[in-house]
Amino acid sequence: EHLADSLPYVDALGAWLGERLVGVVVWAKRGNTWRVPIVAVDVRHQGRGLGTELKRRVLDLARSSDATNVVSEVHRDSPMLGINIGRFRAAHHLQPGTDYYTCDITLERP
């Protein structure tokens, strides 16, 4: 058995500026829950809503599937924490002994 056999399949979406990758979001589907371990934006392009747009697109894709929620682990100093809580209404709690919050966004459908 190879290590790769035990790793979950992941999907990714990139934001491109010409030939240059300036942002990426990665997610893994686990049953009805999608986990988003990475939302990253090139430091030169931060503060313009790119990370928020990448996260919103994952939420839209999840809503169009059978997913019920999207979960992320976010550092307490990351702007994405406020975005998850404020814009996406994520339930959140601090993981004991860490500087990371678990943010759980329940997907609402029209």
Topology readout:
Elements: H1 3-6, E1 10-17, E2 20-30, E3 33-41, H2 50-63, E4 69-75, H3 79-86, E5 91-94, E6 100-106
Features:
alpha+beta; 110 residues; 6-stranded mixed sheet
Rg from Cα = 14 Å
String of helices and strands: HEEEHEHEE
Q: Structural class from helices and strands? A: alpha+beta
The average pLDDT value, as a whole number, equals 91
How would you characterize the largest beta sheet? 6 strands, mixed
- Poorly predicted regions are none
Number of strands: 6
- Count of individual helical segments: 3
Major sheet strand order: 1-2-3-4-6-5
Helix content: 10-25%
Coarse shape: globular
What gap, in angstroms, lies between the N and C termini?
A: 44 Å
Strand content: 35-45%
Can you characterise this structure?
There is one protein chain. By secondary structure, this protein is α+β, with helices and mostly antiparallel strands. It is 24% helix and 42% strand. The chain has 3 helices and 6 strands; from the N terminus they run H-E-E-E-H-E-H-E-E. A 6-stranded mixed sheet has the order 1-2-3-4-6-5, with helices on one face. Strand 1 and strand 2 form a beta hairpin. The chain is globular and about 35 Å long. The N and C termini lie far apart (44 Å).
